[in-house]
Amino acid sequence: MNDTDPVVAAEYRRMLLALSPGQRIAMACSMFQTAKALARAGILQSGPLPESEVRRQVFLRFYGREFTKEQRDSILAAL
Questions:
Q1: Is the pTM of this model over 0.85?
Q2: For residue 79, which of 66, 60, 68 has the smallest C-alpha distance?
Q3: Whose CA, among 40, 59, 61, 74, lies 20 to 30 Å from 31?
């Protein structure tokens, strides 16, 4: 669904393209950090967990569907 006015969308795109590559990367990194913080908060909402389990749960939320079961199990074991 896209309910953004085309004029606003064009202006937003123009503003993003006006940023330097470094600024765009910094923006993307900041957004990813925010997404990770929100995921961690959601995971911890049900109660405290060991940090290793939080890392596993964050991994599964972000990348769990990108790997086969065997690959997931191997990565989770390393976390």
A1: no
A2: 60
A3: 74
